Amino acid sequence: MQGIKVIKIRRITVKILLLICFLFLITNLGFLIYKKAFLQETITAFNEQRQIQVFEYIKAFDNRFFEFIFSQTIPSYEVLIEKAQMDNTTGNRSNTSITGSILKLALNINSFSGKDIINYQMPILGQIRLEAASTPGVEIDGNSENENSPSLEQIPENEHEPENEENESLPPPEVEPEQIEEVVPVKGAPIVLIYHTHTTESYMPSKAYNYKPRDKAYHSDDLNFTVVKVGEILKKELENYGIKVLHDKTVHDVPTYMYSYSNSLNTVQGLLKKYPTLQILIDLHRDAPYSDPDKSRELTTVKINGKLYSRIMLVVGTDKMFPHPNWKENYKFALLIQEKMEELFPGLGRDIDLREQRFNQHLSKKAILVEIGSHGNTMEESIESAKAFAKVLNEVIKSLSKKS
């Protein structure tokens, strides 16, 4: 007779298995509830005022999820978190705390974003480096857990495209011939804001403005050699005409262009709150239509009455990508400037560049992106253009100002 071996399962083992199953079910149920609530919150938040926060919530969830997985894998991680250096002012964990250093040393990652986790699993991806040939615009916010992180539309914007790619300007819209909204002068208060999303954009070194660019695309951390210097001249010239100007020199494109437009958006929103009299917003850049500065120079240089100028291009954003109900007001304002520029300085202006992106121009009905020259031009040529543009803008403002 064949014997049958009976295996007895201890009662304690059954309890442990049941407990594990119960915890697994509770965890998954909680995750589903959290996910449902989270998605509902993102849906209700998805409007013009809060559309930016949606991505921040998703990004934060992504980071929290991977951080949870990591903490379960290495239990001592939570202890390290508690002992990490705290922010002195807010009590929050510092982004440059000991934790970050530990992660860099142990795993060669900087955060718990999906990209960094994938790079950790597939190290070859982490060796890939991309370098822009010209000047890209906004990118996705990578620091959503920081309450001071930029608020931005989470789709890349780029007013320049790589060389040899078809990227024609949008066709000009039909605009009604009604009067453009007036400019209201305010005694002692600024009505014009000059700022620079790509603050470190520089020009071709010259004898008077000789410097060492930090890269082949001509950028400099010394603002005396960048578009900021041109902005200073523009401000000075406008104030000589009696126009009060605020010139903001905040650097928005360091350490990376990835956050340029998000950073400048924060800056301009803050300035509009502080100076509600601001009506004309000028984001002053220099162009880079081709990676070759000599080729760019051919397009962006003009001689008028024996003097060399950097040609000026106005870039106007539309509502193709983001809500921007007043973009045609900006376009009409740009048309007015373009017409006056051609009248006073024939050939100085390039064609208006209409783009799908809005470049933060939704903040005003008179917001324009101004490209003075390119990296093929010199500072001297661009300064002359700034003086000319000031004269043009003064005439336009006078035509739009209320008669006293």
Outline the structure in words.
It is a single chain. By secondary structure, the chain is of the alpha/beta class. 40% of the residues lie in helices and 10% in strands. The protein is built from ten helices and eight strands. It has a six-stranded mixed β-sheet with strand order 2-1-3-8-6-7. The protein has a two-stranded antiparallel sheet with strand order 4-5. Helix 6 links the parallel strand 1 and strand 2. Helix 1 packs antiparallel against helix 2 and helix 9 packs across helix 10. The longest helix has 35 residues. The protein is elongated and about 100 Å long. About 18% of the residues have low confidence.
Keywords:
404 residues; alpha/beta; 10 helices; 40% helix
How do the strands and helices of this protein lay out in sequence?
Blueprint lengths: L10 H35 L5 H23 L2 H8 L14 H10 L6 H8 L70 E4 L31 H14 L4 E3 L12 H15 L5 E8 L5 H8 E4 L2 E4 L1 E6 L9 H18 L8 E3 L11 E8 L4 H22 L4
Parallel strand pairs: 1-2, 1-3, 3-8, 6-7
Antiparallel strand pairs: 4-5, 6-8
Helix pairs in contact: 1-2, 6-10, 9-10
Which regions have little confidence, pLDDT < 50, spanning 5+ residues? 42-52, 79-97, 124-159, 161-166
Distance between the termini: 118 Å
Strand segment count? 8
Indicate the radius of gyration in whole angstroms: 27 Å
Main sheet properties? 6 strands, mixed
**How many separate helices?**
10
- Name the helix and strand elements from N-terminus to C-terminus, one letter apiece: HHHHHEHEHEHEEEHEEH
